[in-house]
Amino acid sequence: MIAFYVILAASPVLLLGAVAFLVLIVAGIRKGDRRDLASPPSSRIDAITRHVVGLGVRSTGEDDS
Question: Lower CB count within 10 Å: N or C terminus of the chain?
């Protein structure tokens, strides 16, 4: 029964963390709408947003094997 109370007490904290993560992703998407996706990410939030959404920049350099 104590485990149930621990889980019940921890759930709002975990939910708040998930909501904060989603807010950061949405803010990164909104900020990224105004930028060129071919340019490198300007901030850590922009890099995380691109990684979560699945955007990546592929280069066609000669050193690719």
Answer: C
Instruction: Decide if 44 contacts 61 (C-beta within 8 A).
Output: no
CA dihedral 23, 16, 14, 21 (to 10 degrees): 10
Domain ranges of the chain: 2-53
Quote the CA–CA distance of 49 and 43 in Å, as a whole number.
10
40/52 Cα distance (integer angstroms): 15
Count Cα atoms within 13 angstroms, Cβ side, for 65.
Answer: 0
Render each residue's pLDDT in the chain as its tens digit; 65 residues.
899 999 999 999 999 999 998 888 887 777 656 666 667 777 787 777 778 777 665 555 555 44
